Amino acid sequence: MLAALSPCALPAWATPPITVEGSSFAGDIVLADTPLLLNGVGLRAVAWLKGYAAALYLPRKATTTPQVLAQTGPKRLRLKMLVEVSADEFVKAFHKGVSRNTSPADAGRLAERMLRFDTQVRSLGKLRKGDVVDLDFLPGRGLVMSRNGTARFEPIAGEDLYAALLRCFLGERPADPELKAGLLGGPTS
Length: 189
Hints:
Blueprint: H1 2-5, E1 18-20, E2 23-25, E3 28-31, E4 34-46, E5 49-58, H2 65-70, E6 75-81, E7 85-86, H3 87-101, H4 104-122, E8 126-127, E9 132-138, E10 142-147, E11 150-151, H5 159-170, H6 177-183
Helix pairs in contact: 3-4, 3-5
């Protein structure tokens, strides 16, 4: 009975937080007045180097990339840095992911907005261990990027741009297949 009254007790409907490599991700969040569920978490690692832990938040659970991309409403991809990395490395990684998972015609339509995104990412300078980068999609506004809870940039319009960035993580040729599996609710390694 006392546990039910504890301020730390979660309501039955709440998703508990999940921790990956020491980075904790809330189970439920609210973005643009919309409750979002923690869809999955994962770790971006190459050999022994662990770059960041990531979490995907959606209005409804999804286990496939088409299900994620078909959802309307706000979405969030949260990255928690586990090492220091230059913003230029992030730009290169996003471009590689977009080119691997986007048709040439679609890439052409995204080119100008990708340049705006590049400028925003580069203005971050170095991303330090412990930094949190949120890539949010807000209907009617577009992609909003924030660092450590502060959005410093104008939104970049277009759900197609946000979908292209998500495909870097969830597409047919993701940067890290284990991270993809984790973000889609599968097990994390």
